[in-house]
Amino acid sequence: MDQLLESLTEILGPENVLTGEAVLERSADWFSSMPCEAAAIVRPATTEQLSQIMTLCHKARQPVVTHGGVTGVVHGAVASANELVISLERMTAIEEVDAVGGTMTVQAGIPLQSVQEAAAEIDMQFPLDLGARGSCTIGGNIATNAGGVQVIRYGMMRQQVLGLEAVLADGRVVSSMNRMLKNNAGYDLKQLFIGSEGTLGIVTRAVLRLQPRLPSEQCAMVAVPTFDALTTLLDLTSRRLDLSAFEALWNSHYRLMTEESGAHRAPLPVDSPFYAIIETQGVDREHDAERFQALLEQAFEEGLISDAVLASSEAQRQELWAIRENIEVLIRALGPMFSFDVSLPIPAMASYVADLERQLAQAFPEAGRLVTFGHLGDGNLHIMVTVGDAGRESRYAVEKLVYQPLAEIGGSISAEHGIGMEKRDYLYLSRNEDEIEVMKMLKKALDPKGLLNPGKVLP
Amino acid sequence: MDQLLESLTEILGPENVLTGEAVLERSADWFSSMPCEAAAIVRPATTEQLSQIMTLCHKARQPVVTHGGVTGVVHGAVASANELVISLERMTAIEEVDAVGGTMTVQAGIPLQSVQEAAAEIDMQFPLDLGARGSCTIGGNIATNAGGVQVIRYGMMRQQVLGLEAVLADGRVVSSMNRMLKNNAGYDLKQLFIGSEGTLGIVTRAVLRLQPRLPSEQCAMVAVPTFDALTTLLDLTSRRLDLSAFEALWNSHYRLMTEESGAHRAPLPVDSPFYAIIETQGVDREHDAERFQALLEQAFEEGLISDAVLASSEAQRQELWAIRENIEVLIRALGPMFSFDVSLPIPAMASYVADLERQLAQAFPEAGRLVTFGHLGDGNLHIMVTVGDAGRESRYAVEKLVYQPLAEIGGSISAEHGIGMEKRDYLYLSRNEDEIEVMKMLKKALDPKGLLNPGKVLP
Prior knowledge:
The structure is a homodimer.
Chain A: H1 2-12, E1 17-18, H2 21-24, E2 40-42, H3 47-59, E3 64-67, E4 84-87, E5 94-98, E6 103-107, H4 112-121, E7 124-125, H5 138-143, H6 151-154, E8 161-167, E9 173-176, H7 190-193, E10 202-209, E11 211-212, E12 216-224, H8 227-240, E13 243-250, H9 251-260, E14 274-282, H10 288-301, E15 307-310, H11 314-325, H12 327-334, E16 338-343, H13 346-363, E17 369-375, E18 380-386, H14 392-409, H15 427-430, H16 433-446
Parallel strand pairs in A: 2-4, 3-4
Antiparallel strand pairs in A: 1-2, 5-6, 6-10, 7-11, 8-9, 8-10, 12-14, 12-15, 13-14, 13-17, 16-18, 17-18
Helix pairs in contact in A: 1-3, 13-14
């Protein structure tokens, strides 16, 4: 290792090869306060440097873990003492913004929010959006195929990427920087690197697809009396509005974020079983607001909602969204807490959550508690569970309750967070043996020495 | 081969192992009248039968070519005398339609149009749409990552597929029939089989994503005085309408389809340099028509269009689209003809086509002629060229003129038709050496004996 670090120092300069204290004061896991245990952290500035790093690591059989914003929640960036962390924190350039073609070319270490802001400057939008926007990176978004709050309209990160460049385990650079919306010239290699959590290659640059920024945005939070009403409302708004987000909040979540924690003013009374944030992006400045209100009125008359509050300014809109997105409040209130991200058929959701709640109360009668919210239109729920301690046994017991029913109802143990180390041993619940075998075949073909993010994703 | 055919006959029955005349009376190539040369055509009815077929072929090192609707235009389904054709014509079942989840589960041999119609029956839509809808199959759409006229709104086939099942070269079945909109549980294996033209596996079943059918549709054909006006109109309609299609017709195409061939009545005078078909799908039954017309009026006032005709009935709408989609008229008028499908940055299009026209006239002063149309918003042009003969030398000369400039301007030699055998030797113009090497690595990992659609895609 010492000799390798010396060679890396020659390439990167001493200020970009961190060891000792400089490593320990960093974290490799957003959900834990443990220091990073890696042997060293190296910080390349260019694809070429990263290629040199991997060429050396490949020769020395040195395993590596790539770090973007380290905001993942499945222990996908954890690094042990024999591993080297490659941080992309210096690779944050916007290389080109093409307003006509609607593309932006960036280095992978750039934070998501910087891309969103650069798109807005040319009256376009980069539609991927999630709570960690300020610190998560485009490379991390790609590696985990990030989702977020606008998937219902614009799809996941996979759909926002036109081209990318990756460094393979042996240092080879595969530059597939396509800018065309359509390109069926051979296999679509970028798909290999999207969502494979840094185990098949290290994404260094990307061509992102931008969308026109639409002139009319509407946002409301509504109180919904039953789960049936919630799904009917989703169908109605999908067909009658230009929906860009439909976020559901169970009472457990809304009440905690407002009345119980005092963190946010409650815009609606706290006694409704469900709440939803409904947002639209439309082209008709003249009629969209009117149509949005008319639809809410109709929903009220039909008993689909019992109350509603419309955001009449960007500040009010952000207040509504903060109730959904302020994850720190959840951690304070529920910690030590287990966080889950599952997908399942919408009709199965209500009973799945109710069953889970009941089983949790049985198994942990004193401290057991869960809080549910999520992207209803995507079939994606986030479930936060506390049982009073974070011990291995408690975790295992809770995981069993959360994951086991998903195999039967055709859901997934990971909707958008990925597998990392946390869900690796449960992968078999969402993927069959043949699928896992083909995954291992791909891993072996692209990273035969097993150097890239070892121990993540695959059992 | 004889022994293999005997074993296959035992599995499938004699009526499903075609040889001799029964093979020769079929075609393996839409663009040619040559008979199919394959040693035999086998017709499995189930995934299990197909798996048995491939197990036997793998043992016998027997190469195979899979046939869907055989409407591809890049010689991707051509089979030679030592190859076996696997036709999916008996695998046309709709296994399940889930109106709540918005999914349809089908066998791969089902025609696209049958899927569209089954979706419409539950007030949903399957948004992939292209001229060959009546005969092309879902399996072929997946294998070629088909595009079509609504890509601008709904994306290509890749985005319509939630899950799929494929039989590998050795007969193993990888069933990855995910129904969730979001599933980040491990590598997204389906991406391997989408767009790889049957060279990595044979798609047998798929879970398709449906979309709500929107209540309001508008359609118009407009005459556009300049290419700049055409791109400005695209930008304007993208931002102000709920665009679902924006098809551009060069004068060369429009005039041929109407006045010259007499095949279609000209809804607009034939002297405009460009035409466009503009279609929207919206949620506002009340205002969409009015807004559509107002925008066309504005475009007229700003000089972006010189004339327009609105479809006031479904019949009129189909008349407009027939001008764009009637490929038989082109073949009759231009045959022998070379057909191209390229993508390039929109700002480069006008001069690319003009240069090509000029060079063609220089190289083939007597019979050289081209006709251009395409999916403008996708950066995708279809160019039909005739030079009077279809000989190898002429083809090569025309290909050079069409493909060579694309490498420089960052375009692609195949936007949506794929590579097949036709463009294999030009792949290097759109993909670099490293990309082609990784493609070969994948091919080797999944089909080490090279049995699946040999000679297609990879040089």
